[in-house]
Each structure stands twice: as structure tokens, then as C-alpha cells.
């Protein structure tokens, strides 16, 4: 057979294999296009294969997610960003506009002040099959029905949707296209561990631990002799608290995490199934955050006495959550300083998952449970999991 025909047969079979394997660039490149055409085709093909991302919420976590996304070479492109006032959109979103938006938000300006701002309603035009919507907002009222109908995948750092009444939240659990690891324990693989235990037919019986990095940090600061009011302020300034620190101090944030863990474990509990001890006083309810900070000093003495009483018995204060299929309890307890819980420092979280397999010694997951970088990293891991 002439050499030319052999080359043709080889080339055609290579092209067919490459196309079958969806490696279109290799197929086209094998036809010896000029370098310039190669580059254009490569760009177009890779662009076609990139998955789109919509990011809701450009606060501390949202901006860090963009920063981390930018430093990974993932087949993704941002097509929309939004805060509570407006969105910026594009297909893909112009890099310069992303930078301008991040800059505006880090200066405390809203997206609505940008000349390219669009109403939030326009976002639904970008809901397409496979688009990943990332909720790093603090919104309470987002409706995910349309996004799911259009085939979008969802990643949550925002706990509100999963912690809503079970009737409204149930559809967000046990769906392969929905991930919410960062809602509990920041980047620690707590949800993933529960899910894999359940997938292997292990039966979870009890979950307990320290689930608030903020309150863990607060307890460590109190133990070190820092006053309650100063400790709360330091936690806020370090980015450990919710936008309103009372969401942490009320125990409400731990309650939301406990609900999410319980529901992931297969127990459809409601808020009323928990007893919760708040770490602040009724007199601090209902005022702006700035005013709240200036009034917390009257609690300094009360907490200093509790720390002292615990220390006399070789104990330290920890804000604990215990969850069973029937309900839960969330409160401040004095634990032995020498125990694993007593050894926790700063924003460290500790989750003990008791199950049929993990008994009497539970499966323990511990590590940093708050902080912007680890939370954003948990979000990024969820995004990556949805790419595969
Ligand atoms: N910080 C942590 O360590 C941590 C850990 C785990 C989970 N989370 C969760 O992650 C989320 C973000 O936390 P963060 O610390 O980044 O809070 P943040 O700095 O206050 O940012 C919240 C963002 O959400 C936006 N937003 C509020 N309502 C919205 C709506 N309806 N539509 C679109 N955007 C809306 C806000 O817009 P404006 O700027 O216009 O107000 C802001 O950009 C929260 O739900 C929090 O509970 C945080």
C-alpha cells in the first residue's frame, strides 16, 4: 500500500478515536492547521467545555472563593456575580468587570453603584443545564426551584436554605447535584463523612461536638483571661463571626448546623426539637451591631465567674451540641481540661459521630471550623466535586 494511503488511514483512525473520546482539539490538530488557527480552535473548544459559575454573595467568603478560583486552573468561567442590590453578568463575565466588582465590594460599595450593574432578576437568564450556582450570600429568601428545573447544580456556604423548616428544606438533601459542606465545620469533611457512612449502610446513632469556631474562639479567649466584651469584638474583627455576632452568641448558628447534620443523618428535626442556651442577654436584642458592641461589657463579670468556677475543678467552658434522632441540646458546659474537647483551642471544631460501626469509639473529625479561607476552600472543593 502506498505510504500516503497508510498515513491517511492512520490519520483518519486517530481523528475518529479522538472525536469518540471528545478530544476535539487533538482531532483538529492532527489535520495540521496552522498554529494560529490551532490556537483559535483550541480556545473555542476549551471555552465550550468550561462550566459556568454564578456566585451569589460577594462578602468575605464570596470574594475569597473568587480569589481561590482564580488561582486554580479549573475548566470554569464566571458568568454572573451578585450582592443584595444588583448583579453583573456576561457570557463569560469580563475579567475587568470581575475585578471592578471585587474591588467595589472590598471598599464597602454595593454592585448597584457600578455602571454595568443589572437587576438581580436578570440572573435567571443565566440558569442553564450544568451551571453551578454558588450561594455565599446571607440571604433567607432565595428560591431554588427554577434553577433546579433548568438543570443547575448548587453549592451552599449559606445555611439558611438547608436549616429552614423541613417542609421547605427537604428537597435540598440527598441530591447529587447539591453540595453544602461549608455550611457545617467550614472546610472539614463532616457532611461527606456522614454521607459515606450512610451510603455504606452504617447507622448513625448520635452526633456531638463543638460546632462553632466563633464560640470556640470565645471560650479560649475567656479561658486566657480576656473579658467577654473584648473577646466578642476580637472574634468579629478576625472574621470568625456571622455578619451579626448575635447569630453566633444566640446559639442560633449552632442550631442551624445541628439541624443540617441531623437532616443529613436522616433525622428530619425542626428547631423546636432542640433546647438552646444563648451566650448573650435579652437586653442586647434588636439593636444595630455597632450599638451592640458598646453595650456588652455588663456581661464581662458573669462569664469571668463561670470561667473561674470551672477552673477550680480542672475544667474549661465549651459550647457543646448533642444531637440524637429525637432532638438535641446546645449549651455551655464545663468539660475536663485534659479531655479532647478541653484541649480544643481557638476556632477549632470537633465532631464525634457515633454509629453502629463506630462504637464505642466514635468517628472524630476535628480542625479549624471557621475562617474565611477554610470556608471558601470548602466551597471550592464542592465546586470541584460537581465538575467530575
Ligand atoms: N464567615 C465564615 O467563616 C462562614 C463560615 C461558614 C458559612 N458562612 C456563611 O457564608 C455566607 C457568607 O458569609 P460572609 O462572612 O461572607 O458574610 P458577608 O461578608 O456579610 O457577606 C454576605 C453577602 O451576601 C450578600 N447578600 C445578602 N442577601 C443577598 C441576596 N438576597 N442576594 C444576593 N446576595 C445577598 C450580601 O450583599 P451586600 O454586600 O449587598 O449586603 C453580601 O455580599 C453566610 O451565609 C454565612 O453564614 C460563613
SSE blueprint:
Blueprint: H1 3-20, H2 24-29, H3 35-49, E1 51-56, H4 60-70, E2 76-82, E3 87-89, H5 95-106, E4 132-135, H6 145-149, E5 153-156, H7 160-163, H8 166-169, E6 178-179, H9 190-199, E7 204-210, H10 213-223, H11 228-237, H12 246-249, H13 252-264, E8 274-276, H14 289-295, H15 300-312, E9 315-324, E10 327-336, H16 340-343, E11 348-355, E12 363-368, H17 372-387
Parallel strand pairs: 1-2, 1-4, 4-5, 5-6, 8-10
Antiparallel strand pairs: 2-3, 7-9, 7-11, 9-10, 11-12
Helix pairs in contact: 4-17, 10-11
This protein binds NADP nicotinamide-adenine-dinucleotide phosphate.
How would you portray this structure in words?
It is a single chain. The strands form two sheets. The chain has a six-stranded mixed β-sheet with strand order 3-2-1-4-5-6. Strands 8-10-9-7-11-12 form a six-stranded mixed β-sheet. The chain has helices at 3-20, 24-29, 35-49, 60-70, 95-106, 145-149, 160-163, 166-169, 190-199, 213-223, 228-237, 246-249, 252-264, 289-295, 300-312, 340-343, 372-387; strands at 51-56, 76-82, 87-89, 132-135, 153-156, 178-179, 204-210, 274-276, 315-324, 327-336, 348-355, 363-368. Helix 6 (145-149) links the parallel strand 4 and strand 5 (153-156). The protein is α/β, with parallel strands linked by helices. Helices cover 42% and strands 18% of the residues. The protein has three domains: 3-37, no CATH class; 49-186 and 376-387, Rossmann fold (3-Layer(aba) Sandwich); 193-369, 2-Layer Sandwich (Dihydrodipicolinate Reductase, domain 2), CATH 3.30.360.
Amino acid at each position: 500500500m502506498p505510504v500516503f494511503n497508510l498515513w491517511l488511514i492512520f490519520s483518519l483512525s486517530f481523528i475518529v478515536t479522538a472525536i469518540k473520546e471528545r478530544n476535539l482539539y487533538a482531532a483538529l490538530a492532527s489535520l495540521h492547521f496552522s498554529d494560529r488557527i490551532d490556537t483559535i480552535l483550541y480556545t473555542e473548544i476549551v471555552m465550550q467545555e468550561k462550566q459556568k459559575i454564578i456566585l451569589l454573595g460577594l462578602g468575605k467568603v464570596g470574594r475569597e472563593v473568587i480569589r481561590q478560583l482564580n488561582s486554580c486552573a479549573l475548566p470554569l468561567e464566571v458568568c454572573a456575580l451578585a450582592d443584595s442590590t444588583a448583579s453583573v453578568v456576561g457570557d463569560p463575565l469580563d475579567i475587568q468587570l470581575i475585578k471592578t466588582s471585587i474591588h467595589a465590594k472590598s471598599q464597602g460599595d454595593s454592585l448597584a453603584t457600578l455602571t454595568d450593574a443589572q437587576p438581580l432578576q436578570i440572573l435567571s437568564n443565566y440558569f442553564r443545564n450544568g451551571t453551578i450556582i454558588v450561594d455565599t450570600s446571607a440571604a433567607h429568601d432565595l428560591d431554588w426551584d427554577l434553577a433546579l428545573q433548568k438543570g443547575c447544580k448548587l453549592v451552599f456556604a449559606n445555611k439558611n436554605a438547608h436549616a429552614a423548616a423541613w417542609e421547605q428544606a427537604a428537597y435540598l438533601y440527598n441530591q447529587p447535584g447539591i453540595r453544602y459542606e461549608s455550611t457545617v465545620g467550614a472546610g472539614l469533611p463532616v457532611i461527606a463523612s456522614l454521607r459515606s457512612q450512610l451510603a455504606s449502610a452504617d447507622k448513625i446513632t448520635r452526633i456531638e461536638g463543638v460546632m462553632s469556631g466563633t464560640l470556640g474562639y470565645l471560650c479560649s479567649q475567656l479561658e486566657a483571661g480576656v473579658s467577654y466584651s473584648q473577646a466578642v469584638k476580637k472574634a468579629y474583627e478576625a472574621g470568625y463571626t456571622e455578619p451579626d455576632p448575635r447569630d453566633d452568641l444566640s446559639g442560633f448558628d449552632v442550631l442551624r448546623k445541628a439541624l443540617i447534620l441531623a437532616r443529613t443523618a436522616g433525622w428530619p428535626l425542626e428547631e423546636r426539637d432542640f433546647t438552646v442556651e444563648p451566650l448573650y442577654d435579652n437586653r442586647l436584642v434588636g439593636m444595630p451591631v455597632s450599638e451592640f458592641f458598646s453595650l456588652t461589657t455588663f456581661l464581662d463579670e458573669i462569664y469571668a465567674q463561670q470561667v473561674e468556677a470551672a477552673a477550680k475543678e480542672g475544667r474549661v467552658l465549651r459550647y457543646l451540641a448533642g444531637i440524637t434522632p429525637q432532638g438535641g441540646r446546645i449549651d455551655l458546659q464545663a468539660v475536663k481540661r485534659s479531655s479532647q474537647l478541653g484541649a480544643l483551642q481557638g476556632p477549632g471544631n470537633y465532631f464525634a459521630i457515633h454509629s453502629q460501626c463506630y462504637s464505642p469509639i466514635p468517628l472524630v473529625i476535628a480542625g479549624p471550623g471557621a475562617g474565611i479561607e477554610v470556608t471558601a476552600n470548602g466551597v471550592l472543593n464542592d465546586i470541584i466535586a460537581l465538575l467530575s
